[in-house]
Amino acid sequence: MLAELLHKVAMGLEQEKEPTKYYPRPSLAGPERCIRQMVYFRLNFPHKPLPGRAVMIFSDSSLCEDLTGDWIRKTAISLHSEQMKVKCTWEGYNFPLTGKIDGILQDMSGNEYLYEHKAISHFNFQEAEKGNISLDYLTQYAIYSRGLWQDALKIDKGIILIRNRNIAQFLEFSLRYDFNIDTLFVENMISSTEGMKPIKIEKEYPNIVENAFVKFRSVEKYANRGVIPKRQYEMDSWQCFAPNTLVRMANGTLKEIQKIKQGEKVIAIDGATKVIKVGKTGKTHQWKLIKPIGLLDTICTLDHEWLVGIWSSRQKYYNNETGWFSIKTINEIEKLLEKGKIVAVLIPVHKPSMALSPLSPEECSFLGYYVTEGCLTNWQKNRYYRVEFTLGIKEENIAEQILYLGKKLFNCEGKKKIREDCRNDQKGWKSLCISFHSVKIVDFIRTHIKGNKAINKELSPSIMGSSLESIKAFLKSAERGDGSYNKKQNCQILSTSSRKLCNQYQQLYWRLGIPAIAQYASKPSIRFSKYIAHQGYRVQYQGKKGYGLRFIKMGETTYILARIKEIQSKEENLDTWDLEVESISHIFATESGFAKNCNYCQYNQTCWEGYVEEFQALVEGIDLTEELETLCAYYLETNMHKKEMEKEEAKLKEQIKQILAEKGVREGMAGKYIITNKLIETSRLEKNLIPEDILLKATIPSFMERLTINLRKEEKKEKKKKEEKER
Questions:
Q1: What sign does the dihedral 485-486-492-497 (CA atoms) show?
Q2: Does residue 579 fall inside a structural domain?
Q3: Pairing of strands 234-235, 702-703
Q4: Measuring CA to CA, which residue among 150, 214, 216, 197 is closest to residue 177?
Q5: Where would I find the beta strands (DSSP E) of 51-165?
Q6: Does 164 lie in the same domain as 181?
Q7: Dist CA 226 CA 21 (whole Å)
Q8: Is residue 620's pLDDT more than 80?
Q9: What three-state secondary structure class fits 623?
């Protein structure tokens, strides 16, 4: 009864408290403190409520401090000035660091020492026993020490007393702060279980207080700019997207996530934002395929988060009633869909930059014909010299229009001829070919359209940001080239082999207020014995009919809502990728909606500095026989076979290599097998040759979860007995 209630009571009482306000203070000053969280804190982002169990753990720490103070008062050492306010300043900084000390100790000789008390978990205590005291604790102490000096209390020595709140074990670190050179010296450590003999530490920390002021000034700069800094630490499991996931760039183009560079701008929910890091980790096997109606699919990891709109019924969604928007994980979205809720992703309609040079309708019309029917040819001296358009034999009207535009825009006479395909399986196939031998036209096209093959063509920002009149001209030409009209569905279709181009066509239609949908067309296949037909895509629309797509305006930005049809599981061994962006929302746009960066190192979520404590706070010693016994047995069995197979593989390799050496052979045949022994040149990093300061800069701290499964001790003994009996 009580076990169920107490954590809820603690959580409820915590939520009733007034939220803590940000100000520069010693408890936030340490270098291990996550600067990203500090920026969120400074910008008054709402706190995520602490779980009741965490509230109780923090309360235990405060109680430990009070209990330790009571025990100190029972000794010959006196403790005074508890919770005395101390202010520390630094020249050139217009803010102080203000906090309250735990107290000042006075021994029987009248000597005074600054006293700080820390109650920590058993795991962190084990680290401290090795002499690895937290830099945050040391920084906080140094700030208090300097503040006392500035208040004319010349106390340069002190202690940090660390208590293991699990087993009431103590560590005492003796410290000395030199006010003149801003350096903290950790001199020795005494453990309550090691015979009270001081253990020498002899570490020093220069510029410790000044560095704290620098950090607070950095927080202020980030907050004033409205951006967040990149993560301080790496984690092996925070990436979320499959390679080749298309991210929407601020200039209207799309880019594969693995090709994005630091400093490039992507679209966030609050506008364009800079990429501060592109992350990649190892392989992931389990994925989720999100399938929104009217958009192409996106693959992401199982627990990734998306910004979605939610409606209680289909009728409310199609009646344009207002839904509610929220950040939901894939698992949560699946549950909502199972309950019959309507869940829709959000896509921004591209807003052109006024800085772009405008393209005229006629220039866009020429580019529309090229993107569907043209290619660059005559490659010489590292460049193209000719533009060719290949049309159907009956498309004389289009040919005349292309020739007219070439003459008017570039003063270049084009050539028209009938071309017959000479390939064996295509003999007799005739086409109408238009060619321009003009470097000027080649350069114009390469400025505005990337890619020379149908599968990799994409539009430049200049086309994406053109006027509505120019966009109409571009799409009209493209529809004449690769478009068709479906009488049965009464809709216009524009086809392409380029995924990026399909997304860009769709964006251009959206800019015209047409809710065009993107679909997969023909599947990849091999045709005519050897010619490959790639994945096809198409954009189609039927007037203002949206096929499930809806326009919605929020602020100055127009968005498209696309209802999620289903989410499928997918198994494929792929690398995982994600972005860090400056936007405080940390929500950036992919081709299939706004994705939220994973919780790792997000404000009041799983920040690196809290991760270890949060992980160690997880329950231990729980009986999981029903849930996991069978899986563990299977895991150990497969692991055992894997090790045996690896040993066997190594033996077989050596035997094969030995026979090859005896025969003087490095390549040969054995029945249906080919054996090749290659000499491959490799390189490795020799750390001993790298200067220590450079090596430290290049070393990125990281942490990861490692799962181990072993037999319990009693089971091992029982297994050993059985094996001995069998012998």
A1: negative
A2: yes
A3: parallel
A4: 150
A5: 78-80, 85-88, 97-100, 103-106, 112-120, 157-164
A6: yes
A7: 18
A8: no
A9: coil
* Residue 237 burial by Cβ neighbours in a 10 Å radius (0-12, 13-18, 19+): middle
* pTM score above 0.70: no
Q: Compute CA distances 507 → 279, 363, 465, whole Å.
A: 28, 19, 11
Q: Is 36 helix (H, G, I), strand (E, B) or coil?
A: helix
pLDDT mean over 326-350: 90
Q: Is the pLDDT of residue 641 over 50?
A: yes
User: Which H or E run contains 149?
Assistant: helix 135-150
Whose tokens are 């500090």? That residue is 38
Q: Which amino acid is at 122?
A: H
Question: Which residue in the block uniquely carries the two structure tokens 């009956």?
Answer: 394
Annotate 667-693 with DSSP letters as a single string. EEEETTEEEE----------GGGS-HH
653 to each of 350, 657, 677, how far by Cα in Å?
Answer: 58, 6, 10
Residues 459 and 590 in one domain: no
In three-state secondary structure terms, 349 is coil
Q: Pick from 433, 464, 495: which residue ends a domain? A: 464
What's the pLDDT at 238? 57
Q: Which two tokens stand for residue 438?
A: 């003009």
| Residue 110 CB contacts under 8 Å (≥ 6 apart), including other chains | none
The angle that helices 361-373 and 468-482 make with each other, rounded to 10 degrees, is 30
Q: End-to-end CA distance of the chain, in Å?
A: 53
DSSP 211-231: HHHHHHHHHHHHHHHTB-PPP
- Confidence (pLDDT) at 127: 82
346 and 367, same domain (yes or no): no
Tens digits of residue pLDDT in 390-421? 999 889 999 999 999 999 999 999 999 998 87
Position 43 in a domain: yes
Length of the chain: 727
Q: Which residue has the tokens 């090859």?
A: 660
Interstrand relation of 449-450 and 458-459 (parallel, antiparallel or unpaired)? antiparallel
Q: Examine residue 515 and state whether it is found in any structural domain, yes or no.
A: no
Residue 603 has pLDDT above 50, yes or no: no
Q: Are residues 362 and 316 in the same domain?
A: no
Residues 82 and 199 placed together within one structural domain of the fold: yes
- As beta bridge partners, residue 608 has none
Q: Count Cβ atoms below 10 Å from residue 222 Cβ, excluding itself.
A: 21
Q: Is the Cβ–Cβ distance between 116 and 104 less than 8 Å? A: no
Token pair listed for 658 = 């030995």
Instruction: Give the C-alpha separation, 237 to 329, whole Å.
Output: 16
CB atoms within 10 A of CB 251: 21
Please give the sequence-ordered ranges of beta strands (E in DSSP) within 320-454, or none if there are none: 324-329, 342-348, 374-380, 383-392, 415-420, 430-436, 449-450
Task: State the CB neighbour count (10 A cutoff) for residue 367.
Answer: 28
Contacts of 355 (CB under 8 A, 6+ apart): none
Which of these three, 157, 185, 215, is where a domain ends?
A: 215
Q: Which domain holds residue 262?
A: 236-350+561-596
Q: Taking each helix axis from N to C terminus, what angle separates 396-410 and 361-373, rounded to the nearest 10 degrees?
A: 130
Q: How far is CA 529 from CA 167, 373, 526, 567, in A?
A: 76, 24, 7, 36
Pair 503, 246: CB distance under 8 Å: yes
Same domain, 583 and 632: no
Shared domain check, 244 and 185: no
Closest CA to 209 of 42, 22, 86, 31: 31
Q: In this model, does residue 515 exceed pLDDT 50?
A: yes
Residue of higher predicted confidence among 721 and 104:
104
Tokens read off for 386: 């000719």
CATH number, domain with residue 328: 2.170.16.10
